[in-house]
């Protein structure tokens, strides 16, 4: 159980909130790079409770800035994206992708003060098909995070955005809560549904894993374990990386390269940004099911909250099929991602954590909350830099996945060994 005060401290991310300020110390993936065309329409973006507009200028550079024009706050969404900048249509002031005022068209040249005016713009970057922004101190910008799935060449990674209508932490907690997989996603599956050689069958035999949890320099990691064949243990290893990343163990560790960012749009809307390495050779079960296992999108609109919404949603009960729920499907909702979407949205915009009764199966959630709370407090009260904010290269240690190891083996040693072997094999075959 968490107090409502602690819960709000973690959940709220607007400007000036402790968690919001912590998040602003990291690069944030906010859109597909392909959402912006050179000299194309400006795009409304809602990130950490801030209303922003993004546009790609004539040279291909993307600018992201406060949507309010620095003159008298008209929205630059209605601006003209032309000839290397965006021009406000109220009085014609023009700004480049970095926010520099290029033209003060309604002021005579001898009264012009354009060199003193700056739109509030954020540093942008493009990597792995995504647009990233940095909303912290623009004079002190760190490197992009060394999270494996986000470092792939554009041609090797699939990126999908899906909006979820609940608080970011609620969504994220569903992603580090492995024991729900045996119910919400696989409650009707039995061992007969798996190949004899597929270790995921042990998850269907034992639906009550135990956990090891440890802090890392970048966040918190867990190993969920169950008995496998005699003398062996089935491990599922996964990670939370600061501030809002999860790596889930839904594939074998040697070839499962994914990452998901739970990017707060505001306190009750989250953009999940999913990076999945394209399969090379045989796809894993989750790759075969599709990058995110979800249904269709609604058409994107230009609204602040209008991008990447799912067709199955709260308004139509996620298209739950009650007949299927009685027979073939535990949840009655199709697609792993949509099952998660339904259940985490059903907990409310920001769930009331004072009503919870956490169990040993929630150990990873409890540790992750504690770690986030401590980091946000230490940053807000003492200025202590949060984990890996200045050392984003440290994230490279992390990959999630499952494997079977001798029961007496140390889980972290077994994880490191398998990851090193997988990366060696990858280097050798490259
Ligand atoms: S409000 Fe934008 S130019 Fe006047
Ligand atoms: Fe799930």
Beta-strand content bin: 25-35%
The fourth-level CATH homologous superfamily of the largest domain is: Naphthalene 1,2-dioxygenase Alpha Subunit, Chain A, domain 1
The CATH topology of the largest domain corresponds to Naphthalene 1,2-dioxygenase Alpha Subunit, Chain A, domain 1
Question: Would you list the SSEs in sequence order as H and E?
Answer: HHEEEEEEEEEEEHHEEEEEEHHHHEH
- Profile the largest sheet: 8 strands, antiparallel
Unreliably modeled segments? none
**Total helical segments:** 9
State the name of the first-level CATH class of the largest domain.
Alpha Beta
Helix content: 10-25%
Oligomer: single chain
Number of strands: 18
Bound molecules: FE2/S2 (inorganic) cluster, fe (ii) ion
Q: Based on CA inertia axes, which overall geometry fits?
A: elongated
- Gyration radius (Cα, Å) is 23 Å
Number of domains: 2
Distance between the termini: 48 Å
Report the mean per-residue pLDDT as an integer.
93
Structural class: alpha+beta
CATH-scheme architecture of the largest domain: Alpha-Beta Complex
What does this structure look like?
The protein has 430 residues and is of the alpha+beta class. It has two domains: 27-134, Rieske Iron-sulfur Protein; 148-429, Alpha-Beta Complex (Naphthalene 1,2-dioxygenase Alpha Subunit, Chain A, domain 1). The protein has nine helices and 18 strands. The protein has helices at 4-11, 18-23, 168-175, 201-205, 285-288, 322-327, 336-345, 363-382, 411-429, and strands spanning 27-32, 43-47, 50-56, 62-66, 80-82, 85-87, 93-95, 101-104, 121-127, 130-134, 157-164, 210-216, 219-227, 232-241, 245-247, 258-266, 269-277, 401-406. The strands form three sheets. Strands 11, 12, 13, 14, 15, 16, 17 and 18 form an eight-stranded antiparallel β-sheet that branches. The chain has a six-stranded antiparallel β-sheet with strand order 1-10-9-4-3-2, with no helix packed on it. Strands 5-6-7-8 form a four-stranded antiparallel β-sheet, with no helix packed on it. The longest helix has 20 residues, at 363-382. It is elongated, with a radius of gyration of 23 Å. The model has no long low-confidence stretch (mean pLDDT 93). The site of FE2/S2 (inorganic) cluster has 9 residues, from loops.
